[in-house]
Inverse folding.
């Protein structure tokens, strides 16, 4: 893929991920939306739909509540869809490999994100000092700087992952023996079931009127 | 129309999408809150020095659900207008602001993120399973309809409600809280929750029907098992339900490793 396309895709991906906290909360960061979108843009929406479905269900409770910073599930679904469609389009085994390969990177990005939010404290104090000195424009500048840094760190991370880490993903995948690939094929159909289990767990205390089932 | 005027409140509504842009671990949404309030404070306190005091009192800790923040912003703005006319005290402004944040965050978290989002997402999941075999053979990526339907379904509720919160807060002032408490979020949440549960059950039944009886590849079972694949699916479903307290990432690795082990053993 040419560099211009990678830049555009990394920007779109960064904007989707920024939706979780920094802007809007329109839910474009949810895997059920962003994975198919990236799939559509890279030529095969079906892998994106399936990966999005799995990630959406497995991480159904991954929302930023209070000071908690969950792992970036949009990053998980976007990168696994991108790598699959660029290196092995339509190959279900490669999609599962993408999904398990990307998780450590999502945890790495979580740490970067936490560092970024700590840096925001400095900007916040800069804004506060500005108000003291009647420099009210710092409120707007602080907000847009915060948003810019959110998107920038996501963009840089996506760009590196799309341009360079994908090559490692591809090289490792090509070394797998047949039984591992067969295992990935099975996982393609079993991971959604894992998702259903995770979702049902959320309903464990639901009362069904005519059965009176309760935890 | 409101104490803020239509133009100011609309501007504040659009600015409210940025409330978390400078989210930080020390005071969370404080600068975002100021950013949204600023147009109103500019009008209310034309004198820069007086306005500085008003801005400074909103630099403290603030955190709530980003959608529900609009109600708090509007009521606080009304309080600021009263403070400017010496009809209310500064302490009252801070008290109102801090006392509303927690309860409204609880409503927003449970209704929007715990109920509405799963409903919209599960309708998408159901459609993915329903049309999975159709989309695989289609010439055009009709599947794009699914993420779009998720987005439209969610935001058809989200955006008008967020807009209404801002306007209700301005127009009804503290009565908007009474109105919100009368509006049975819990009851509505329960209804939507049952709907989500029904969609989840329908999705599971559909999934087991489509993929659980040897038609996975169109040429036979996924597992070399005298029983249908649905049996393995059912075992995984029960196990994943029981082990759901474990980390999601750990569960994914566990399932993939189990699948590799089964393949290695020729199952």
């Amino acid at each position: 893929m040419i560099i211009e396309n990678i830049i555009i895709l990394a920007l779109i991906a960064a904007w989707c991920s920024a939706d979780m906290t920094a802007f809007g909360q329109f839910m474009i960061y949810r895997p059920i939306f962003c994975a198919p979108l990236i799939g559509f843009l890279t030529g095969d929406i079906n892998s994106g739909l399936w990966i999005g479905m799995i990630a959406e269900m497995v991480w159904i409770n991954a929302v930023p509540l209070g000071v908690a910073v969950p792992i970036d599930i949009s990053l998980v679904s976007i990168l696994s869809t991108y790598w699959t469609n660029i290196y092995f389009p339509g190959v279900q085994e490669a999609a599962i490999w993408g999904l398990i390969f990307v998780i450590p990177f999502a945890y790495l990005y979580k740490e970067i994100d936490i560092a970024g939010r700590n840096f925001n404290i400095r900007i916040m104090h800069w804004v506060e000092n500005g108000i003291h000195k009647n420099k009210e424009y710092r409120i707007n500048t602080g907000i847009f700087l915060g948003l810019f840094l959110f998107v920038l760190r996501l963009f840089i991370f996506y760009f590196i992952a799309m341009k360079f880490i994908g090559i490692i993903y591809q090289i490792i995948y090509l070394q797998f023996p047949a039984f591992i690939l067969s295992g990935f094929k099975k996982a393609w159909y079993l991971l959604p079931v894992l998702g259903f289990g995770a979702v049902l767990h959320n309903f464990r205390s639901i009362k069904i009127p005519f059965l009176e089932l309760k935890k | 129309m409101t104490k803020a005027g239509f133009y100011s409140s609309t501007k504040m509504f659009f600015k409210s999408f940025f409330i978390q842009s400078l989210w930080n671990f020390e005071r969370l949404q404080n600068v975002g809150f100021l950013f949204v309030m600023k147009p109103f404070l500019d009008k209310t306190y034309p004198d820069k020095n007086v306005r500085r005091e008003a801005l400074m009192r909103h630099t403290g800790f603030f955190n709530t659900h980003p959608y529900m923040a609009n109600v708090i912003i509007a009521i606080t703005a009304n309080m600021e207008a009263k403070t400017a006319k010496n009809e209310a005290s500064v302490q009252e402004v801070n008290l109102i602001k801090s006392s509303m944040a927690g309860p409204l965050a609880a409503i927003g978290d449970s209704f929007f993120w715990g109920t509405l989002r799963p409903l919209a997402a599960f309708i998408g999941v159901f459609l993915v399973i329903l049309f999975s075999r159709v989309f695989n053979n289609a010439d055009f990526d009709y599947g794009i309809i699914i993420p779009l339907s998720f987005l439209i379904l969610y935001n058809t509720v989200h955006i008008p409600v967020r807009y209404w919160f801002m306007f209700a807060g301005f127009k009804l002032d503290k009565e908007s809280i009474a109105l919100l408490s009368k509006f049975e979020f819990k009851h509505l949440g329960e209804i939507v929750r049952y709907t989500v549960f029904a969609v989840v059950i329908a999705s599971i039944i559909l999934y087991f029907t489509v993929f659980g009886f040897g038609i996975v590849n169109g040429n036979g079972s996924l597992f070399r098992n005298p029983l249908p694949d649905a049996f393995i699916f059912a075992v995984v479903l029960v196990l994943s339900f029981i082990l759901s307290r474990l980390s999601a990432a750990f569960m994914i690795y566990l399932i993939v490793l189990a699948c590799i082990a089964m393949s290695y053993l020729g199952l």
